[in-house]
Design a protein that fits this description.
352 residues, alpha/beta, six-stranded parallel sheet, 13 helices
Length: 352
Amino acid sequence: MKIADLAVLRETGECSMATIRDVAKLANVSIATVSRVINQNGYVNGETKKKVNNAIELLKYKPNSIAKGLASGKTKTMALILPDISNPFFSELARAVEDSASSQGYTVFLCNTDSDTNKEKDYIRKMKDRFVDGILFAGHTLQEPEIKTLEEEKIPLVVLDRAPGEDICLVVRSNNREGAKLAVRHLLEIGCNKIAHIYGPQEVATARERLLGFEEAVKEFSWYTPSLLEQGDFTIKGGMDAVGLLLKRHPDVDGIFTGNDLMALGALKKLKQLKIKVPDQISLIGFDGIELTEITEPEITTIAQPIYQIGSLATSLLIKKIEGSLLLHKSHEIDVELVVRGSTKGNSKVIS
């Protein structure tokens, strides 16, 4: 490329579109030499290096970050694969991941799968094609063969909540089962005599664990029957529908534990429509600790997960795996806490 040609490029504003090939032509060197200068990888004599850097400056060339990463072995990117970004739990989790990753120089690709198995697999393939350094996975369909494939391809992985088997990958999770027991214990302590549970999809590990915790806490009581359980699909509508079905079967229910806060929001809305007073007639408690539970009337008691801490910890662990300073597949289980508000009898407080 001649200087006259460069002047035309400047006038037309096309310098910013320059390629590594343009730099090589202007400097009269090979593309491989330009790559060595950019990535500081391999010997280039001082005079040639100066010519390449002058060409880069004149052309305003900006090296492709992925191309640079391929040369160095790292792209400083990671993927966060989520089942439903519209769920406030996952949007708060994504914020924590992005904050933590950015503070350590990493960029996050956000992948929303709508809990679709095919979309999850497709995103994993696409992220591998983009040469991400690692993957944070918060879906529920990841299977052992897929984990082993990622391991064979040396793509670090951290799973949020549950992996399909023990000790096959690094997992960060909350103590879901104990959290459910804490919810039941609170309802019993405030005087509830018949407690129902609205549970989430059983293909989701967190929903299974919370249901198991509920059953373990109530199975010895004479009033307990499986008909006090109702599926709520982890959605507001699911919570509304489940309350209607439960109260048709058990109009004397005086306590409801929902497997997440979105279902608790739906349950509260339905109870208000039915003119049932919360907490005077029915006490209500959710699980997750999303901010929406603080803007209802009454505010909703919840088993709060430290959402930001979970996202931050998972990101830090993934970066350690990427950088080779963490090799063990150790699970990290984080404690939850009871946040008492107006939807259950008693004064507002936090109980760990």
